[in-house]
Amino acid sequence: MNIRIGMFACPSCQAPSISLWRKVGATDTFPARCARCNGLSFVSAWAHFAGAFVAEGLLWGAAIAALLAKSWALLLLFPVGLVAWSALVGAVFPLRPIARGEVRRARRKTAALLGGGAVLLAVIALVAARW
Ligand SMILES: [Zn+2]
Questions:
Q1: Domain that holds residue 32
Q2: Domain check: are 106 and 92 in the same one?
Q3: Transmembrane region positions (predicted)?
Q4: How far, in Å, from the CA of 76 to the mean position of ligand 1?
Q5: Model confidence over 70-100: pLDDT tens digits?
Q6: d(CA 84, ligand 1 centre) in Å
Q7: Phi and psi for 33 in degrees, rounded to 5?
């Protein structure tokens, strides 16, 4: 078994088999897979939801700070902040086990949402084109 520093324990078998980057990116539609027991796990959608806001805030915060201070070095706040946020997600949000059937259901739901969104956009584009 290959154990590295900074690996998180699989919620199914407790083996430290999940890397920080895999954990931060693990959703119910694309869960992390344990190399030892093949168990699937993911981080709560709230972490990803909050992450989108944090990334947006960091991007604009760093850009505005750099413009105001006239210092391009402040743009580094963005990548540094993202790394800090990833470490925070790794430390605060637990990995939760998820069954294969639930992953399939979550993927169907996401596909339906994306499909619905695409249809809605197509309808709006068609309506706008007639004006
Ligand atoms: Zn495992």
A1: 8-98
A2: no
A3: 46-69, 75-99, 111-129
A4: 36
A5: 999 999 999 999 999 988 888 889 999 999 9
A6: 26
A7: -115, 130
